[in-house]
């Protein structure tokens, strides 16, 4: 009976505690299942990777701030991938569209205590760059994009000035894309462009040689003219002195009182007359010769001016023909209703590093419903497709989709005629709500920053000093002559456009583009 009573009491106790035990077990089960789910939901950490195929030169790099990774693409897809570390809060890496502007194998920071930034590839002149650096596994830089040291070294020699760099808030990738508005080169223009550029280059070289010879001849004629004028002055002075001596001899003869004095005066007067006649004859002969030689000098000078003008004209034509063989980049801004064209001249900029980009073509553009956001889309010609081009699209900012964005745009026919027939691989069209950043100048392709994303690592840096925009590298007097476009004043970062965006750092909006 005692045993039975004890068992009954234990069973009753278990029944009383049963709900609590069951609740505890359920909580434990939920905890473990939640951790397992979190492990499954968390994206796998990015590791360095190389595509398992033969690959060509990179066409673009896409940095994902969200995924903390960078991916390089060639014409067939991704080729290299690696983790990165972008800017911390308050020093955020700016999202937007950029290009490689300068490369430095062993760069030392001028902003951060001579910090080592190996294999640096600059994308803005105010200091944002891709470079090797420590990767703690999260955003930790002051605005640059840190890459693994070995990865940065590996790709350093594969990239080039002008290569597209896209920094996206999310994780995006290029997709195959086609649209009637994309450049459609003609086979005749593409085939003929190199030979035309070579022929015009030779013509420009001949014109430059002829101009140099003409300038040398004009300079020699000018020196002869100056020497001749100096000789004429001396002969004229000698003629004047001899005439004065003759007048003095005449007076002395008239004043002679004796036969002896008269004889002496007559002898002196005859000598003075002979001397004056000789001086006059020399002067007249030299003057007649000088008229002919001065006429030749003037003709030579005019010929030199004409030769220099032809040199300038042919050099400009040759440069345009050469640029037609280079990839063309077009930026279309809904904010400014303008279209901007860039081509790399590959001429070193002598006043601050990098290379000079041709900036000579800008045009108003028509955008349907200009007050409606259009997004930011990057269309890139990644390779030839028969006689045409094969394109990809990347969208990094909401608005229209890529097709609808292009549907809304009408590019002037004269602009298309200048750039579309000879468009080659690596050409691009960028459509964006944003204006060009004030960091855009003649030493950049395009710098466009998304105004609805944090920009602390961009706007807290010292802005690049404004520089005159030099068309087609004409600062070098290589045939164009030296002429400057109006001073580039850029566009500031535009104000925040949509609700729910992160805090935005921006400069005050200026009233106009120039």
From TrEMBL:
Organism, as annotated: Bradyrhizobium aeschynomenes
Protein name, entry field: L,D-transpeptidase
UniProt cross-references to InterPro entries, sorted A to Z: LD-transpeptidase, LD_TPept_cat_dom, Transpep_catalytic_dom, UCP029342
Keyword Chloroplast included in the entry's annotation: no
Pathway: Cell wall biogenesis; peptidoglycan biosynthesis
Residues the record marks as active site: 131, 144
Residues annotated as domain L,D-TPase catalytic: 59-168
Disordered as annotated region, ranges: 488-514
Keywords, sorted A to Z: Cell shape, Cell wall biogenesis/degradation, Coiled coil, Peptidoglycan synthesis, Transferase
Coiled-coil intervals: 204-271
Listed Pfam families: YkuD
Family, as annotated: Belongs to the YkuD family.
